[in-house]
Amino acid sequence: MHLSLLHGVAERYRTPFFSALKEYSHRPTGVFHALPISQGKSIVGSHWIQDMVSFYGLNVFMAETSATCGGLDSLLEPTGPLRDAQELAGKIYGSRHTYFVTNGTSTANKIVTQSLVAPGDIVLLDRNCHQSHHYGMLLAGAQVTYLEAYPLPDFSMYGAVPMQEIKGKLLALRRAGKLDRVKLISLTNCTFDGIVYDPIRVMEECLAIKPDLVFLWDEAWFAFARFHPVYRNRTAMHSAAELRRRFADPGYRASYEDHLSAHSEVTDEELLRTRLRPDPALARVRVYATQSTHKTLTSLRQGSMIHVFDQDFDQKVAEAFHEAYMAHTSTSPNYQILASLDLGRRQVALEGVELVQRQIENAMRLRDAIDNHPLLARYVRCLRTSDLIPVAHRPSRIDQPLRSGLRNMQTAWSQDEFVLDPSRITLSIGRTGYDGDTFKREQLMDRYGVQINKTSRNTVLFMTNIGTTRSSVAFLVEVMVNIVRELDENVEEMGIDERARFEQTVRRLTERAPAMPDFSGFHPAFRDTSGTEQTPEGDVRTAFYLAYDDANCEYLSADKILERIASGRDVVSATFVTPYPPGFPVLVPGQVFSANILEFITTLDTPEIHGYRPDFGYRVYTEKAIENLLATRGAPDPSVVSG
Q1: pTM of the entire predicted model
Q2: What digits encode the pLDDT tens for the residues 569-624?
Q3: Among 513, 512, 505, 511, which Cα is nearest to 434's?
Q4: CA nearest to 555, candidates 513, 614, 642, 474
Q5: CA spacing 20 to 30 A to 49: which of 66, 162, 214, 604?
């Protein structure tokens, strides 16, 4: 047993690329091609930048090289230590292939999309996904069908995409005779706010409708989940392996026959309410996951991975994947990032379970400290599972699985459509009178140096990770107490008028929630009108590049847009419009403006809106440009095309 343990540790401890890079850094070399900084030669003799060495240390520059031989390897054509490092990563993450990426998961998403999607293919995409997916769609020339997540208007955010929404879109495409063109579905697991899908259920039910559908799970914030026994069951790679096992099981085939006989003649409406099961003889397990190792595990900034579990990869995707990887990957990748990915894999292989468990425990300490503090409880509260996931998506009916013991947590994570990641704490702060962005900038960051990322109209998000310590939790609680104590003293000393203004602000943040806008739809000029019925997919690529000609665009204020809408004329966005917070695009190129969308943006009162220029307004297509495009594409008159 002792020898077996030593063998297991040694196998996990190996870091092929880091070891090769470390060995290379100590070899005498002559550089006659590039990188003056290699081995620090352009630094150590300089009188003006030696502080680089004193700050970073000499080893960073000793390991800086562009060589792909001499014991090292090429990221674009790995045959040595990089190949071995990626194989070890694939083994620990449960993939069939793993690829290192040195420009973040934004690039990883574009690589996967471009390798799978050809112009004209239909893609089902979560509308609230990261912007890299939207840009990936226009690069690939996809026809995009946006999926609507359930809204959480009290907190001005969206949750996840319900199974009924996904099946409804697939069934509509099948009725229209377009199912053969549907190639990919892309979802975010887990969402920024910690809402986690049940990938097995999603993939099973989708494959029952479209047996060769490909799945891209954006797990940018979920790389750590592989290393905890409860989380692991809801990761893409584990779910893919489980589906592959099920489809090969004779018992599953027998149960499928029973399911088929019971549901052989049902309407699409009934299918929406039925838990579907795919034909194991037809279903193909084709799953991709992109992960930001640097976000939740140990890696230098921009270190990410692509994990592949695709039965048809070698036959159908390998060549296209290689081309897409070449298209988006630098020929001069940062070797320090690659080495850190190798080392980060070693760490989780040996102590990942312990680190993730500690992360969860620290998150629970933070929740308890905030909710049980009498002063904090007057102004802030940690949102519960029942606040972020409606009961319709929680068959277990457990409102607080994080607080009611491991058994209840396991029950919820095995039964519910969506669950909440306990390592993330969304804090409702509306009663402080601060909106999320102001609280983040003026209180947490400017005064105390507390860094957070996500906010909404009345919430801030605290995320624990494997680097979170008990002392950092204690510091955050102390900061929150200081902020709230000062606020409480100010409120006590307010005059009548000032107190009335404060209470009005609190009501605006806690009661008068703006309506959450649905996707208003693509203009008919960018729609595919073929098929037996109208479906909502749109040509994002044409819409995006049409704006490259300034003559096709104009700027309109919100009031002017509302006037045109009121007169029955369409106004079409020429760009992405993304308010920060909350950070999802409310308009994409080719999308029709609606009064609801403009009201939502105005009510948010957000200081930063990408795609909007305060001095000009919104960039939209001219009516003439839309008319010309309709004539060129032979699209029908908008007045006769249903929404």
Answers
A1: 0.93
A2: 999 999 999 887 666 789 999 999 999 999 888 877 667 888 999 899 999 999 99
A3: 505
A4: 614
A5: 66
